[in-house]
Amino acid sequence: MLFEDIRRFMDKSKPLPESPEYEGFRHLDPVTVEHDKAIGRPANYWSEMSLEQQFKVANKIYEPIYELNEEFPKKPLPEMKEPWKHWKPDGKKGEGKGLKHEILLIAMQLFTAKPM
Questions:
Q1: N or C: which end of the chain has fewer CB within 10 A?
Q2: Which CA distances in Å does 66 have to 63, 70, 87, 107, 114?
Q3: How far apart are alpha carbons 4 and 21 in whole angstroms?
Q4: Contact indicator for 109, 115 with CB cutoff of 8 Å
């Protein structure tokens, strides 16, 4: 999975992979901008989801990959290509969690280099 992510990231003729870590950079890549406009992708899709919801989506996406440990699916899952059509942000990101939660979230973002 990591190799496929890197391969898709490096191919400049195709849009960036659909993943939270690329959310903040999609607007900088002209191919991705055109692709997102053509398919109607919301600009801040992953940013609108809470961390809990992002984990649920990730688990759902990775289920078939874990099951097909030695084989790749012939067609990409629709949930992987256009997740915004299958899961809507719950709007609960950062609701009433307090300063301790915010500091923990920032520390996790710095440690993992991924938006949360």
A1: N
A2: 5, 9, 21, 29, 22
A3: 15
A4: yes
Angstrom distance (rounded) from CA 63 to CA 43 = 26
Average pLDDT over residues 49-74: 75
The residue among 1, 39, 8, 37 whose CA lies nearest residue 22 is 8
**What separation, in Å, do the N-terminal and C-terminal C-alpha atoms of the chain show?**
20
User: What's the pTM?
Assistant: 0.54
pLDDT-based confidence at 72, cuts 50/70/90? low
Quick count: other Cβ atoms within 10 Å of Cβ 10?
A: 8
Q: Decide: 60 and 79 in contact? Cβ < 8 Å.
A: yes
What the block records as the tokens of 77 is 């899952």
Give the dihedral of Cα atoms 47, 50, 51, 57; nearest 10 deg. -90
Mean pLDDT of the chain: 81
